[in-house]
Design goal:
With 256 residues, this protein is of the alpha+beta class. Helices cover 37% and strands 30% of the residues. It contains nine helices and ten strands. It has a five-stranded antiparallel beta sheet. A hairpin with a 5-residue loop joins β3 and β4.
C-alpha cells in the first residue's frame, strides 16, 4: 500500500489531523487519540492519555446508550451510533461513532478503537427544525390563518381557522375563500379588499364570516400579498383575531 516509510508517516499525519480517532484498553482508559480528537474536544493528548473515555461524556446522554455500546463491543461486534460529547470548556459536540474491538493473534479482545464523524451541524439543524415545527404547531392551533392563490382559492388553513369556521381542512383546501363569506357583508368591502391587496398593499379590516352550521363570527383581519423572488404577487396570506365578543357588546350598546 505504501512505497516507503515516508509515505506511511505522511498518511499517519493526515489521518491524525483529519480523523477523530481514539483507542482504549479493555476498561475504557485512553491509549491513543488523534490530533482531530484533541482539537474537537479541547483537551490536549497529555490530558487525555490514561484517562477514562468518559472524560468527554455529556450528561445529556442516557446510560442505556453506553450500556448497549459496551454490550455490543464486548461481544466482539462493532457499535455504530450518534453520541453527544462534552468539550473541556463545557460546550458540546455530536459525533457519529464507529467503535470496534481490537483482537490479538488468538482473536482475544485486547482493546477498542473508534473513529468518529462530526455531525454537530446536522444535529443543530435537526434541533432547530424540531423547534420550528413546534412553533408551526402552536401557530396553527392558536392563529386563525389562511393562504390563497391569486384567484382566492384556499391553499392553506390553520387548525384555528378550521375550529372557528366549523369546516375540516379537507373541506376548505381547494375551495374559494368566499365559502365563509357572510351575506351581511357588503360587496363594497370585498371590492376594496381586493383593490388593496392586488396593488401590493396590506388590507386591515373587520369582517363577519359564516360558519358551516350557519352561525357567524367576527374577525379583525390583516391580508398581505405574498411575493416571489421577482416581487411578483403569487398569492395572499391572512391572519385574523376573533372579535366576536367585542362585536356582540357593541351591538348590545347600539341597541341600548
Amino acid at each position: 500500500m505504501f512505497d516507503n516509510l515516508l509515505d506511511y508517516d505522511k498518511f499517519l499525519t493526515i489521518y491524525s489531523k483529519n480523523v477523530i480517532a481514539s483507542k482504549t484498553d479493555l476498561k475504557g482508559s485512553i491509549t491513543y487519540v488523534s490530533e482531530a480528537f484533541s482539537d474537537i474536544s479541547g483537551y490536549s493528548s497529555e490530558e487525555l492519555l490514561g484517562k477514562n473515555h468518559n472524560i468527554v461524556r455529556h450528561p445529556d446522554m442516557p446510560k442505556k446508550v453506553f450500556e448497549e455500546l459496551w454490550k455490543t463491543i464486548k461481544s466482539g461486534k462493532t457499535f455504530t451510533g450518534e453520541i453527544k460529547n462534552k468539550k473541556k470548556n463545557g460546550d458540546y459536540y455530536w459525533v457519529e461513532a464507529t467503535i470496534s474491538p481490537e483482537l490479538d493473534i488468538d482473536d482475544n479482545i485486547i482493546g477498542y478503537s473508534a473513529i468518529r464523524h462530526d455531525i454537530t451541524q446536522k444535529k443543530e439543524f435537526e434541533r432547530l427544525n424540531k423547534e420550528h415545527n413546534k412553533l408551526l404547531d402552536a401557530y396553527s392551533q392558536y392563529v386563525i390563518a389562511s393562504k390563497t392563490d391569486l384567484a382566492g382559492i384556499i391553499t392553506y388553513v390553520s387548525d384555528a381557522f378550521c375550529k372557528i369556521s366549523g369546516y375540516s381542512r379537507e373541506e376548505l383546501l381547494g375551495a374559494s375563500h368566499n365559502i365563509v363569506r357572510h351575506p351581511d357583508m357588503s360587496s363594497v368591502v370585498f371590492k376594496k379588499l381586493w383593490s388593496v391587496i392586488q396593488s401590493g398593499n396590506v388590507y386591515f379590516g373587520e369582517i363577519k364570516n359564516k360558519k358551516k352550521n350557519g352561525d357567524y363570527y367576527w374577525v379583525e383581519v390583516a391580508i398581505s400579498p405574498e411575493l416571489d423572488e421577482h416581487k411578483n404577487i403569487v398569492g395572499y396570506s391572512a391572519i385574523r383575531h376573533n372579535i366576536s365578543q367585542r362585536k356582540i357588546v357593541e351591538e348590545l350598546m347600539d341597541t341600548d
